[in-house]
Specification:
With about 280 residues, the protein is mostly helical. The protein has one domain. A two-stranded antiparallel ribbon has the order 1-2. The longest helix has about 40 residues. The two termini are about 30 Å apart. It comes from Stenotrophomonas pictorum JCM 9942. This is CAAX prenyl protease 2/Lysostaphin resistance protein A-like domain-containing protein. One of its GO terms (molecular function) is endopeptidase activity.
């Protein structure tokens, strides 16, 4: 989770029998990274679901054996198995999304010793943390303004993860704090800023990197069809999440360390969690 150099080198050139040609397109590399991450995320999610289903099946079977009622019909069995609870869902998200981020980072965008040195130097600058606090404050203010403006138009979306957060807050508050404020910002910044944005930044196309990585960030947080939100609500959430992604990418490039983006993301999530505790809404 180290930074790229503030002035990344131009793309390397490779020689072939036909002469000199440019190395593979950074845009193609971006979408390949995204495809690998998405496939890994889905695969790990499926694996986690299977493991959870087997574990619940064993539990239900043991309970049926103790009670002497025997196994139920398929429909009743599905009802007995139920759905993963808040803790299980957070663990699945940690394994699937965090695993995808670590895999793509290690395989495709591992930091060099020089990049780690630049990041370590940036961490010692006071301006790094000044920019971090400023961006975190602006992200919060911007999200609040967008939400308020949309509410005046009758648009009030419900974030897809809000029911999970409410359930986790009621039953596993300490793990929710660890997950939302520390773990999720780390693996999301590793994937979306270090790997996806970083590839296009290193290729000298930071503006395109901000646009594409922020769009991917927004889409991951609000997937159409996974909630009751209509098109206006989805567009509002995309605007908020996309703006957050763009701000964190800008901060990463400005400071030269991914830790600044992680810290700003963590502050934003802590504020959202605090709002959920105090006001009952994210």
């Amino acid at each position: 989770m180290s930074a790229l150099p503030p002035l990344p080198p131009a793309p390397a050139v490779a020689r072939s029998a036909a002469g000199i040609r440019q190395a593979g397109s950074p845009v193609a590399g971006f979408f390949l990274d995204l495809l690998i991450a998405a496939a890994t995320l889905l695969g790990l999610s499926l694996l986690c679901s299977v493991v959870w289903g087997v574990w619940r099946g064993v539990e239900v079977g043991r309970e049926a054996a103790r009670s002497g009622t025997g196994l139920s019909a398929a429909a009743d069995m599905a009802q007995l198995l139920g759905q993963p609870g808040a803790l299980a869902q957070m663990l699945m998200a940690l394994i699937s999304t965090g695993g995808a981020a670590l895999l793509v980072y290690a395989w495709r965008r591992r930091a060099t010793s020089a990049e780690r040195g630049i990041s370590a130097h940036a961490l010692r600058r006071g301006s790094t943390w000044g920019w971090t606090l400023l961006v975190a404050a602006l992200v919060f203010a911007g999200s609040s303004f967008i939400g308020w403006s949309a509410k005046q138009l009758g648009i009030e979306p419900v974030p897809t993860n809000l029911p999970l957060m409410e359930q986790a807050l009621a039953n596993f508050p300490l793990f929710l704090l660890l997950f939302a404020v520390f773990l999720a910002p780390a693996y999301e910044e590793l994937l979306f800023r270090r790997v996806l944005f970083g590839r296009l930044w290193a290729a000298g196309r930071p503006a395109l990197g901000i646009v594409l990585s922020s769009a991917a960030f927004a889409l991951m947080h609000e997937v159409p069809g996974t909630s009751a939100n209509g098109l206006p609500e989805i567009l509002q959430l995309w605007l908020i999440y996309g703006g957050m992604g763009a701000a964190f990418a800008w901060l990463y490039r400005k400071t030269g360390t991914l830790w600044a983006a992680i810290a700003a993301h963590a502050i934003n999530n802590a504020i959202a969690l605090g709002a959920l505790v105090v006001f009952g809404t994210g």
